[in-house]
């Protein structure tokens, strides 16, 4: 930010919107990440591998992938740098595993909402609300999953992009169903799908647990906004 400029809060509908978290600002300690988000990493074993992965999530979110060293990650996990290589061959392998697990969870959330019983309106509100809550409640993980894609090598990136396309397809299917049923008035389904997902994902960039809203409140707000976006009838 240029010298002399002061951050001023944004307003939306008379409410104050928390400013985006800048690179380098505190994202929470490894212990806090473990307590608030580690349930996402239950499949990672043994315990040492899980501790390293959680430490990597925190470091990547706070410092960025390229500015983070394996020594940083090991130190946050309370381990020696040599211990990291027992479980992960490279720093990129850590990022790849974080990205894959995170995107699989995101896809599961959207599939559950997309394939449930109910109208397109109900399914879209469920998809958006759940997706936003995940990005807000797991903001540290989501920042890494959504914003470090370009740090992956070609093969790993291709795998993650395939998962992203599946996420896109679930939301697009709901919107198409709504248009076909006369529930939504949308001229460009693909463009609207992109807008909806971008809106949800961006929550991870600015959400602050010390801010004025809870993840549930933001999820409800965004679900309402998206239904207005699709011209709910």
TrEMBL record:
Organism: Streptomyces venetus
Keyword annotations of the record: DNA-binding
Name assigned to this protein: TetR/AcrR family transcriptional regulator
Keyword DNA-binding: yes
Keyword DNA-binding recorded: yes
Superkingdom of this protein's organism: Bacteria
Any one Pfam family match given in the protein's UniProt record, by short name: TetR_C_24
Listed PANTHER family: HTH-TYPE TRANSCRIPTIONAL REGULATOR RUTR, HTH-TYPE TRANSCRIPTIONAL REPRESSOR BDCR
Residue spans binding DNA: 69-88
Limits of the HTH tetR-type domain: 46-106
């Amino acid at each position: 930010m240029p010298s002399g400029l002061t951050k001023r809060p944004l307003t939306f509908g008379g409410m104050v919107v928390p400013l985006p978290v800048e690179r380098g600002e505190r994202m929470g300690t490894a212990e806090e990440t473990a307590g608030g988000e580690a349930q996402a990493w239950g499949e990672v074993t043994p315990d040492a591998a899980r501790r390293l992965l959680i430490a990597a999530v925190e470091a990547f979110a706070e410092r960025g992938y390229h500015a983070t060293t394996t020594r940083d990650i090991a130190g946050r996990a309370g381990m020696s740098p040599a211990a990291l290589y027992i479980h992960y061959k490279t720093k990129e392998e850590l990022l790849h595993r974080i990205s894959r697990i995170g995107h699989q969870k995101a896809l599961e959330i959207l599939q559950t909402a997309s394939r449930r019983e109910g109208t397109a309106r109900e399914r879209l509100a469920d998809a958006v609300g759940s997706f936003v809550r995940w990005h807000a409640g797991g903001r540290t993980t989501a920042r890494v999953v959504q914003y470090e894609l370009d740090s992956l090598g070609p093969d790993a990136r291709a795998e993650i992009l395939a998962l992203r396309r599946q996420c896109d397809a679930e939301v697009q299917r709901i919107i198409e169903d709504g248009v076909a049923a006369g529930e939504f008035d949308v001229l460009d389904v693909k463009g609207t799908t992109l807008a909806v997902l971008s809106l949800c994902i961006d929550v991870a960039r600015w959400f602050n647990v010390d801010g004025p809203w809870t993840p549930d409140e933001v999820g409800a707000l965004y679900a309402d906004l998206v239904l207005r976006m699709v011209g709910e009838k």
